[in-house]
Amino acid sequence: MKRPLKATICNKAHPAYGAVSLPFPIQLEEYDENLKMLDALGIGDPMERDCFVAEISTAYPILKCLEGSCVNVDELDYLIKYLDSFTPDEVTAFQGVAWERKIADLPGLINLAFSCSQVVAVEDFRNLEQVGIWLLLARNTSVDPPELDRDTAVKTAIDALSSGEGIVTPYGVIFENGMELQTVYDGRIFPEYSYEAPLITAEIPVPMNNSTYSLFLPMAEGQLKRYLDRLGESLTSVRAEQVFGPLFEKLDLPSTPDRETVENLNRLCLAVKDFDEAEFSTLRSMAAPFESITSAQLTALAKGVQQLRNTPDETMIQTGGMTL
To answer: What pTM does this model have?
Structure first.
């Protein structure tokens, strides 16, 4: 996993408490421990921006703008994960627009990341044909690159350069192509985005805005709780309206019973996230005798499979060493 940012974070009101240095994006296995370190400093609120950034080391120079400000650790983690899906050209365009529009807060940067797909940033003007192709594709996404002839591409590039519409930034000359900054993040509920391929996608109701929201599991237990806090829900009471994902195929199950709690579904994903095919095969064998089975029961069986890594025993293979 790439770790393109490291932030030194402290409590601005109590600098004597010390500081922690956190790499981003935060790995699942690190998340809950990082929360404990922040809690020891009296910071790390689920929604407040109370983490003072004393220093940033980053592969995204534009994010140095966050130094000397207070951030929310989940907002920073979310932005870095989303930027990790960008190509180098897209990162350049993002940084160029952020610099030109002087966007220096995390909600604004998250919204920009979702808004700048049509922006073109040019660092090298020697290949006018390629520059023209980028511009044409950004302005008309239905265009098929093989249909673009060289003369049209070159003329497009020359016209754009001579028109003065390009904006010079430290990250290259950017062409915004009519980009509008969308508000996809309201400062509370993150746009749905899966950083890694999920084992389960759980759709849950969100009464506060009469909609549904997709949770991509597994998540660290602390992170799941904080996401639900943002949605105005309690960890122990939220039940999924729809559940799907590759885990059910791995377990040879159509799905788990309706209205499973998100907490139990996540615990199942955490229990099996590192399983190899042999371990999934063992788990399938354990689950086979049950006419129906819940995610909590599957989690208990999965923990039995984990025990089998060090204690291969035929009786345990049949029952998982658990009483269900």
So the answer is: 0.88
